[in-house]
Amino acid sequence: MSEAAVTCKICSSAYTLPEDDILGNLPRLLLCGHIFCTTCLRALESPQNVFTCPECQVNTTVGEDGFDGLEVDSKIVGLVYTARMNAKKRHSGVGLQSSKSPASSSDVHTQESTEVKQDMGKVLDEALKKATDNLNQLDSLYQTLVKGIQAQLRKERSRIVKELDDAVEKANLILLKRRNALMSKLSAVDLLFSAGRKECKRIEERLKALRTAIQKARHVRQVPSLGTYCNLDEILETLHIPVDIESYDMSSLSLRSGLRCKLQVDSLTECLSNYLKIISHEEDDDVILEEVTVEPFQCQVKSGEFGIGEEFCDKKKRKPKKFLEKQARSPKSMEEIRDGDGCAEMVESEHSPLLPQSRPKETHQGPKRHCRPQCERQSSSQQPKLVHYVIVSHIENPGHFYVRYMMEHKSAHKLTKKINTICSGESSLFTFSDEIKMDSLLFFLERTDMWCRVRVTELFQKETFKSVPKCPASEVFRLCFFFLDHGFSKTITIPSDEGLSGLNECLRKPDAAALCEINGWAPMAIRCSLKDIVPSDLVRGWSSEACDEMRNLLGSKAVEMQVFGDDGGTLLVDLKKIPMVSLREHLVFMEMARFYCPMVAPGSSKPLLFYPPVHPKLDDEFNAVVSHVNTPSDFYIQLVENMEYLLLHSKLQDCYGPLTSDSELQIYCPSTSQACVARFDQEWFRALITGFPGGRMVEVRYVDFGYKKIVSVNDLRQIKDEFFILPEMAVWCRLSDVVSLEEVWSDKACEVLKELVENKLVTVVAKKLVPNTRPVPVCLFEVGEDCTGASIGEMLISRGLAVSSKRTQDKDHQSPETLFQEELSVNLIPPSPDSEELKPTLILPACLKDLKVRVTHVTSPGNICVQLLQFDSQLKRIHDMLRSLYSKSEAQEIDWKEEMFCAANNTGVWERGKVCIMSSGHVAEVLRCDFGNLVKIHVNNLRPLRADLIGSFLLECNLSDIRPAGGRSTWTATACDFISQYLMGSTAIMTIKDPAVRPVLISLFCPNRAGQNISIADFLVSEGLALKERKEGSTSQSALTEECMLSEEKSPQSERTVTPPLTPPTPAPRINPAPERVKTTAYPPPDLPPCGHTLMSISAISEQGVIYAMTHEAVCEFDRLRERLQQHIKTLPRQKNYNWKSVVGCAVMGTDMYWYRGQVQEFIGGQVKVRYVDQGLVESIPVCHVYPVVLCEDVPQLCIPCQIHGVIPIGKGWQWDAVVFMKELLLGRSVKVYIMEHPEDPRGCVTVEITVDGMALGKIMVHHQYATFDPDYKSQEEYVVKLPVADLDDWDINTEGLEESQPVLGVYAKFKLPEGKKHFAAKVKHIRSPNEVFLCVLDKTENRQKQEESLEEALDRINENLENLSRLTDFPIGYPCLAEYSDGKYYRAKLMGFSEVTPAVQLLVRHVDFGSDDTVPVHKLRQLPPSLHHFPCAAVYVKLAGFKPPRICMEKELIPYRPEWSMKAMLEMVDLLNGELTAVVVATEPQLTVLLYKMDGSLVHTPLVENGLADYE
Length: 1513
Hints:
Layout lengths: L26 E3 L5 E3 H6 L6 E3 L6 E3 L12 H26 L5 H4 L4 H58 L5 H9 L9 H29 L9 H9 L18 E5 L12 E5 L9 E5 L4 E5 L17 H9 L4 H8 L44 E12 L2 E6 L3 H15 L11 E3 L3 E7 L2 E12 L8 E3 L3 E8 L5 E5 L6 H7 E2 L3 H7 L7 E5 L2 E3 L8 H11 L4 E9 L2 E7 L6 H7 L3 E3 L25 E11 L2 E6 L4 H13 L18 E6 L2 E12 L2 E6 L5 E5 L3 E3 L11 E6 L2 E3 L6 H11 L3 E6 L9 E7 L9 H7 L3 E3 L11 H12 L23 E10 L2 E6 L3 H15 L14 E6 L2 E11 L3 E6 L5 E5 L3 E3 L9 E6 L2 E3 L8 H11 L3 E8 L5 E8 L5 E3 H7 L3 E3 L13 H9 L25 E2 L14 E10 L5 E5 H17 L9 E2 L5 E5 L5 E10 L2 E6 L5 E5 L3 E2 L12 E5 ...
Parallel strand pairs: 18-21, 30-33, 42-45, 48-51, 57-60, 70-75
Antiparallel strand pairs: 1-2, 3-4, 5-6, 7-8, 9-10, 9-20, 10-18, 11-14, 12-13, 12-17, 13-15, 15-16, 19-22, 20-21, 23-24, 23-32, 24-30, 25-26, 25-29, 26-27, 27-28, 31-34, 32-33, 35-36, 35-44, 36-42, 37-38, 37-41, 38-39, 39-40, 43-47, 44-45, 45-46, 49-50, 49-59, 50-57, 52-53, 52-56, 53-54, 54-55, ...
Helix pairs in contact: 4-5, 4-6, 6-7
């Protein structure tokens, strides 16, 4: 052992042992594992009895005995003692040797050979004796280490197996398979003892050397003459080497794997993949650990980070420093495996099975990649959700925030130190020769002695107002940059008087070496977004309250992140923080967000609801208790004969017990119409959630009593299935024999009824059968001695609180009530499925008057969707058939397109639908065919609809005899919201006026609170939301049949015709404050250029086909105008309630947060339809981004509205497809415009003719059948504008001697392989994929003999005289030409097709002599000279034989156009194909196939297969 091991690191004094009265200098062991002498520790002792280690800065607290109470390192004490004893032995040995010194040289020659042999024998005997002792010690040491490792390994395995067995017993028999899977992963524990096995190998080598030396020494002892044939000194040295026990690492005997099994009970019901975890057993329970996916059940296994430290040591025993240094230098240590090979999965890696997975690669990658959790590239339906622990570093909004992984805390600390070291050097300072570019990496001083990585996002130079791509460091005025490791952005301004000194105070630059090193560290801040939620108000976006709520909930502590996938580099996640279940659900429940698409839950069913209450029999008397009273027309009764409810109530109290906050049945995010158990007066009752008043409060209705109450979410519990067995006990009723004196019941009448009947026993008689959605008409009687007392209704009449209802009984005809009763009694018996034919489509009945309908969807008074109640049985049969056909079906891979009919699973119910829009994320907008509204549904919930089921029971209607108020052509948002609120889901009476038109013209009547039917059209007129249509009566009433008219004469007058329109069906409308009246004028009209030719840029095309163009001067003026507008309005004005009717000119904030001038066109419920007067664009802008003020009135409108000359659009107006075609053809292009004439109105459209690529736009529109020629023109060619030509005289031109047109060249000649040769020298010119390349044959002797000049010489000659080459004017596919390459020279190519058409024509060409493809504009193409045409193609396309793509590709980066190959295989194949190769032809048909060999005769693809990037063919 070295001398440094027995000396103190601080004072370099040797450790000494106490002897007699002398106090020794003993080595003391600190908590961190470092060793120092007692003298140094006493000198550095602090008054608080705390000592900070000078090496690792770890604090050690000492007790009352001070540092004398610290543990003494026994190993060093043993070394000191051994050294002292060896010194004494050597001293005694020297005396003995001096006493037995050999004779003088004169006596040596006279001694006999026997004496020499005798002396040699003594020396050998002594050495053999010592070697025997050493051998015994090494044998004992080896046996102890080998047996100890096996015992400790068995002990560790037994401990983990025991914990696994305990967890499996708790998790029941279903987890037995999981146990076997985890047992197979325990082989990874063997790697922890690799250092101990190395020590065993060292001892084996020492044993082997010692045994060999002993054998040689014994042979020399027996036969002394053998000493001349061996190195006796080396043998003696081997025999004398002592056994240093301390030099061998015995820590493997106490080594622990750091793994234990943990059962997470909370996740049992969530996912089997999170059922069992193997986590690191650390002293600090607050350490957040990494998670590793374990196949085949995708279990999450938490493991500690295997670094160099105490992780491999026992808690009581520390590693010697020497062993730690050896382990740090070991090439197979955990740290080097992580740095070299990345992070390996437990299943796939054979070197480091306990390391965490690696995160997907970031934009900048280097030689070092630090471990991060990885999101597998699989669909969310097949991939388990990975859970990580993170800290939220920055929040923009719930859809845009950044997190940092907890496991990267140490890596971030190392990165900060490295950046601080780089910034402390002189090379990081900016000089006058340095430039700062956009997107460059810099270092910013966030706070004192802390530099952070930033990336420049915006750069401004002095005396400029626009961002520049680069500028000198001394000219920087303002910088905007993004913090890569924190996620937020910042802008700084450099004072102009400070120059570089001000810049260097806060910024540094990396040099080339530092940049290469820093780029190897991936950004710490990961962009995330909460999955599947959108703001509650889509117009205003995320509110500040939602962002503040998210910040307050998360704070700066670690939270659990659940990863669902990624979208364009953004992780789709959900955050959880105990005791909160989900941040997404919390925001939705707080009404700050909402889900935008249904959650995919294959196999999920509709949530259970309570059975409806059992209605009493007609005209039967029974006793009941009135449980709750709202009004005489709205109260609830409870039958007293049902004793089962008492048992259920008792069982309910026993099951849920006292109120606790940690109940497993706690409801965290309730939903409307959800069945639950709610607390009331310290007892639990069955309830139904009916509303959300706000905060953490909900409104519930106790289904067994009928009353409603607002309770806290903490008082709700999930209801068990066993409590659904009984129906609702509360029966909704109303008094049938009385009606209110006024429109609504008076408060006194309600109070009197409560005093008479609430919570009292009464006698009830049902008077009519009604559906469950209506109250049961009953008569209430007091319970007297004769079991029948006074009538409650008559008591109300006698007190003047109600009047008796009129009962009209006529023997000649039945009343409407009787008809309804008979109809209901018939409907109570469901018809047989075979009794009537199934009709999938609605067929209007013969009588179109007084039809009972259900309103399913309302958009406006002109678009109301209804269902006829008489078709309910047919609709139910359709739904039952859909459920039986598709409830157990699996999702199919179907390319869903618009207008396709489908069966949709909407919240557990299968319905007929039609796909309207396919959006990103496999979500489709589906029209519910039988209901009329649009819903967003995942494609996994869609199935192809059978042809015989396609249809709809929906009828689109339009209220007749009314029109929008205010002289508008469209209905206002107030009218739409008003009618939608009061009609949605209601039952009404409908009369069809004209069934021939669509939507159908109808009259609609709905009951108000008094039970009277009123006309919805009249009610809208009375509210001022509509006006009566002034026109003659429609003759469409003749469509009514004679039978229907006769039935109308016989039937009594309907109630709906006598009620005044002043009785609303609902409470009074809301009253808003009057809007502020503002009036603005329009912006001045544009300055029209003179008639004639001009060059203009197309900025916009309206939906009516108006083309907005800007001259070159207007484009320049637009940039200056935008700067002026920003100076006028520097902040967002305060939002007010404006009256937009008189507003014309306004200021608009665009999507780029700049102000523009606009013109108000229409106000549509919270949004203003605005046209940008300087560009022509039309958008619907939120009210908060529109300000009624006119800015820069001195500047006229910059865009000119234009119309095409000489054509008439099809259909007397441009259709939408024609407008789309013009947008694709013109937008953003600079075209030639001929102004034909100016309009009379300066704001009107200018008649122009636009020339696009030499062709008139009008002629193009006619060609595509979007328009026809104007018949006012005599000839179709007259309207075509000719470009002005020079006025030339009539010249007699002689064309003799002119060159004739060049002949059209054919395709290139194919290169012929050398005849008679199966193998030839070749070189790869271009590689398309690992097994598809372009070869160049190097054997060209025959061609050289026939050619006067080579292809290269001919190309050089052509490139020297480029001015003689003509441009290419015709572009047939496969045509030979010359194409300019990136080096500026022209090479032979052939046309492959058109790559782009707008904004400029781009063609795809292939360089035939190289095999590469390129996209070039038209002006970079030249005609091919005939002298170059006869050369065959130098590059020939071949396929490589002998290998194929791997069957299973584990790489994540794939070749986009060849997804079967990975990018890593491509890059490695590029390296393998360098240099001269030998090709052997395998096949010539159908494709030339070869084998490629290297110069040494080995196949090129062999390394590719050995690395697992390909398979042998």
